[in-house]
């Protein structure tokens, strides 16, 4: 692992209790600041990969290092500290509907406060200012005091991106962030995600169904089929034809 690597996935296998291999001896490294699209058919193992990287589930074999730390060894407080540095963005946005945009964005800081303070909404002035800046970044400042459930899908995802910025994450995992959005809105959300990477220098891994979006926005494309890594190339050197190998059977 070189100093510039933030993530190292080393011969990782995930065997589910029903005998299905969600991941099958998968290895790759990610450099700090990279924007990587992970693509593959439904059931290929993309979500399993993300759940393994953020320790939502344990792997069966192999190792995952983040910033040089073997994450399988983390427990209790160390695990909580690790999690607050992993930004998660979901297809379903995961905002709290009845709360304002401001409160949703501030909740990105919960890992940095004792629980009682977050329940009472006692966030620092610095964090409130940071929330304003984060919302400004994604062009959502005008909605600061609106309820989350009054927003469109694209606006909700922008707020989720602003919430992730609040975490000052080492690594952002975006799991199908545009799957429920129309093509035009998807482009806008992908631009905001890319900005997170360019302006904040965050490392971003994004699961995508759309090859076009992967080619347009990612630095590098990783393809998974049947839990195995079948493609790993710079986007600039990949063509739609190349990417067929991710979707068509092979002998592997
Ligand atoms: N909790 C589980 N128990 C058993 N099998 C599972 C579990 N989660 C996923 N799998 C299986 O592991 C394989 C990989 O699933 P995964 O959800 O990681 O794929 P995916 O590429 O994210 O698919 P999608 O694009 O549909 O979300 C699939 O065969 C799936 O059925």
UniProtKB/TrEMBL annotation:
GO MF term set: ABC-type phosphonate transporter activity; ATP binding; ATP hydrolysis activity
Disulfide bond among keywords: no
Cellular component annotations (GO), alphabetically ordered: membrane
Keyword set, alphabetical order: ATP-binding, Cell membrane, Membrane, Nucleotide-binding, Phosphonate transport, Translocase, Transport
Superkingdom of origin: Bacteria
Nucleotide-binding listed as a keyword: yes
Pfam families xref list: ABC_tran
Domain ABC transporter, residue spans: 7-251
Name listed for the protein in its UniProt record: Phosphonate ABC transporter ATP-binding protein
